[in-house]
TrEMBL record:
Gene3D superfamilies: 3.40.630.30. Pfam families: Acetyltransf_3. InterPro entries: Acyl_CoA_acyltransferase, GNAT_dom, N-acetyltransferase. It comes from Antiquaquibacter oligotrophicus. Residues 65-222 form the N-acetyltransferase domain. The lineage of its organism: Bacteria, Bacillati, Actinomycetota, Actinomycetes, Micrococcales. This is RimJ/RimL family protein N-acetyltransferase.
């Protein structure tokens, strides 16, 4: 359904474009309201339009961190991270034993390309060679004038309080705005997840919508540049 709007948006005259973009945003918002329930991805041939070029996961260095594609050699560290109750409290993730965490990490090693709607790209956040977190992007709408990406983040409790998450998310936001060409980056934060709300605020996100359960936040390229 969103895809139909995207096609319409791309063809619209400038006067008609703004309401169409608003409609796309409303549909993205409606879709995001269902977060928390498992997402069923449509087969690739049904996912329609593509980016002008594929965006592939790559190494990114920030002042103190390296972001890079996930690697199965981090299986133990990933299990510790993905089964820590403090980390998953506000995520829709189940508690995973070592085997489930391994499968989960294996999936993440394959999530390295953004090209079509729903594509997901995850990067390991490392500090001095050690896995300390994860940042991700999911392509929500492709049309260039309403292109939207959703960002996700998590950091090991031992490494919180040092600005690492701010630094890592800034790194992946560069990918979203520069490589993907996003017009907006969305973040969904559950009620009560105060550290994530503070992080989003530091990065320049503003509230787009709030339901009883979560905040839908948005970051524009201008706000990112100002941040
Ligand atoms: C959300 C989350 C990543 C935030 O982590 P965080 O440590 O609070 O964020 P940062 O790493 O950016 O650190 C910010 C803190 O470091 C401090 N800091 C120290 N040095 C800093 C620096 N160089 N730059 C920025 N902040 C710095 C800041 O003042 C801030 O401190 P405060 O919490 O006392 O205000 C983390 O709580 C988490 O992983 N939560 C669980 C996963 C989750 O819920 N994900 C979100 C799903 S939407």
């Amino acid at each position: 359904m969103v895809q139909q709007s995207i096609v319409g948006t791309a063809r619209a005259t400038p006067a008609r474009r703004e309401p169409l973009i608003r409609e796309v945003v409303a549909r993205v918002r409606a879709a995001l309201e269902h977060l928390g329930t498992p997402t069923v991805r449509r087969p690739r041939f049904m996912r329609g339009a593509t980016l002008e070029r594929r965006v592939e996961a790559r190494h990114l260095d920030t002042d103190r961190l390296r972001l890079r594609p996930h690697d199965m050699r981090d299986a133990d560290a990933w299990h510790a991270l993905a089964s820590d109750a403090r980390v998953i409290r506000y995520l829709s993730w189940p508690h995973r034993d070592a085997a489930a965490a391994r499968r989960h990490l294996r999936d993440r090693t394959r999530h390295t390309t953004l090209w079509q709607t729903d594509d997901f790209l995850a990067l390991a956040v490392t500090h001095r060679g050690q896995l300390v977190g994860d940042v991700s992007l999911q392509l929500r709408t492709v049309a260039s004038d309403a292109r939207a990406v959703e960002v996700g983040w998590l950091l090991s409790p031992e490494h919180q309080g040092k600005g690492f998450a701010t630094e890592a998310v800034r790194g992946i936001l560069h990918v979203a705005f520069k490589d993907v060409g996003a017009r907006m980056v969305l973040a969904v934060v559950e009620d009560g997840n105060e550290r994530s709300l503070a992080l989003a605020d530091r990065l320049g996100f503003t509230l787009l919508h709030r339901n009883g359960r979560s905040h839908l936040l948005v970051l524009t390229p201008d706000a990112f540049r100002r941040g």
